[in-house]
Design goal:
The chain is α+β, with helices and mostly antiparallel strands. It is built from 3 helices and 5 strands. This is Cystatin F.
Length: 138
């Protein structure tokens, strides 16, 4: 690519010199995971699916939801694969009530308060509206 840039530069003049001196892919190689803002809507949606998977796997009477995402990576692989380091906390909502997690506050009762540190990988295929939590370690 650099050789092509220099060839174009030599035939078109100096107005491409700034482009040719740029690092074209500073974040790494295509297909490799890259850091993404933990507040990105896709990250938040992946974290919610992770919390819902956790709720489906526990016998806890209360629901858990994501409380903090400390690190998020995304990789483009036939969709998007999100890799998250996150915390999930016990809410005051009971599973039998089937509440919406957005409406659930975290436990304030000291004896019921519980938090887990988790690593999760969520594969998202947006055009199929498919979410799959492939790894969840808490």
């Amino acid at each position: 690519l650099l050789a092509f840039c220099c060839l174009v530069l030599s035939t078109t003049g100096d107005h491409l010199r700034g482009f040719c001196s740029q690092t074209l892919n500073p974040d790494g190689k295509p297909g490799f995971p890259k850091k993404i803002n933990p507040h990105d809507p896709g990250v938040l949606q992946a974290a919610r699916h992770s919390a819902e998977s956790f709720n489906n796997c526990t016998n806890d009477i209360f629901l858990f939801k994501e409380s903090h995402i400390s690190r998020a990576l995304v990789q483009i692989v036939k969709g998007l694969k999100y890799m998250l380091d996150m915390k999930i906390g016990r809410t005051s909502c009971k599973k039998i009530q089937h509440p919406i997690l957005d409406n659930c506050d975290f436990q304030t009762n000291h004896t019921l308060k519980r938090t887990f540190s988790c690593y999760s990988e969520v594969w998202v295929i947006p055009w199929l509206q498919k979410f799959e939590v492939s790894i969840l370690h808490c």
